[in-house]
Write a structure and sequence with these properties.
Elements lengths: L1 H28 L4 H21 L12 H7 L2 H22 L4 E4 L2 E4 L17
Antiparallel strand pairs: 1-2
Helix pairs in contact: 1-2, 1-4, 2-4
Length: 128
């Protein structure tokens, strides 16, 4: 089971690293701030997974006050769920922030532009 969890950690780190490199390129070409948010998300949530996977796991034996953290850190299922949630969250932030995913929540449009839900009108020859 440790091999499977390590593999999932490595895939999570590799996929997020690919997305952050792509986000850095897009940040230089566009004015969207979502790519800056994705870089911060990567540093705070994904980079520790990569450090755990490729360098070493930290030693928490001396931290007696954080026993709950120690127990959850050693739970394999918790680590798999964390990896899956980080990939899903990273993907969702990227899609909503770049305007490629749009949805309506109580008459507010989240994501893309207002054109996604604008009614089409007939201008004589075609709909716009």
């Amino acid at each position: 089971m440790d091999v499977i969890v390590g593999f999932i950690d490595a895939v999570t780190f590799a996929l997020a690293t690919y997305w952050v490199i792509r986000g850095l390129k897009r940040l230089l070409n566009t004015q969207r701030t979502v790519y800056f948010i994705l870089i911060l998300f990567y540093i705070i949530f994904i980079l520790p997974v990569g450090i755990d996977c490729f360098i070493t796991y930290p030693s928490y034996d001396t931290w007696k006050q954080f026993q709950g953290f120690f127990v959850s850190y050693n739970d394999k299922l918790t680590r798999i769920i964390y990896d899956a949630w980080m990939i899903f969250t990273y993907y969702l932030i990227e899609k909503i922030g770049s305007g490629r995913l749009t949805f309506r929540v109580s008459n507010r449009i989240i994501g893309g532009g207002y054109r996604s839900f604008r009614k089409k009108r007939y201008t004589g020859r075609e709909y716009q």
